[in-house]
């Protein structure tokens, strides 16, 4: 009979454990969907520069920070302290708020460009909006699960 080792609720994972624990399993999908937002917005014509610049900032910032956060947890640099659990919650909550605001801005711009004529760019913008909201959802779920872990720390 094989013994399974479950991660205690109040501990932070490290190494391969980040691929198996509830909030940390979202790192890879967050990177994938955030990267897709980044790529899709970068491939379109940046017509209203200010809102789309915010979307690009959010997607690049969250992609880089999530990758760094993943490396910190995978390398075990967090030393399993409650400060890291709080920082994990704070970062993912901030990223969720950022992606929500970026998704709203991107959806507004996409809706306004609906009658502009270029159907290919319109479809790319719609895909970017969908992936922005999926990124928001992933970061929000990660923030909720991180807050539960922080509470039990």
From TrEMBL:
Annotated TM spans: 25-46, 52-77, 89-109, 121-145
GO BP terms, alphabetized: myelination
MARVEL domain residues: 18-151
Cellular component GO terms, alphabetical: membrane
Record keywords, A-Z: Membrane, Transmembrane, Transmembrane helix
Membrane disposition: Multi-pass membrane protein
Subcellular location(s) of the protein: Membrane
PROSITE patterns: MARVEL
Pfam families: MARVEL (PF01284)
InterPro entries (UniProt xref): MAL, Marvel, MARVEL-CKLF_proteins
Chief localization: membrane
Molecular functions per Gene Ontology: structural constituent of myelin sheath
Protein name as annotated: Mal, T cell differentiation protein b
Species this chain originates from: Labrus bergylta (ballan wrasse)
């Amino acid at each position: 009979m094989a013994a399974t080792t479950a991660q205690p609720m109040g501990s932070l994972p490290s190494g391969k454990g980040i691929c198996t624990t509830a909030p940390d399993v979202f790192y890879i999908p967050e990177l994938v969907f955030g990267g897709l937002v980044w790529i899709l917005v970068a491939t379109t014509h940046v017509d209203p520069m200010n809102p789309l610049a915010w979307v690009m900032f959010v997607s690049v910032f969250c992609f880089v920070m999530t990758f760094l956060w993943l490396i910190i947890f995978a390398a075990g640099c967090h030393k399993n302290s409650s400060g890291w659990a709080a920082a994990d919650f704070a970062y993912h909550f901030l990223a969720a708020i950022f992606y929500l605001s970026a998704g709203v801005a991107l959806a507004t711009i996409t809706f306004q460009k609906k009658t502009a004529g270029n159907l290919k760019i319109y479809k790319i913008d719609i895909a970017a909006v969908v992936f922005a909201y999926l990124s928001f959802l992933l970061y929000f779920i990660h923030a909720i699960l991180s807050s539960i872990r922080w509470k039990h720390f």
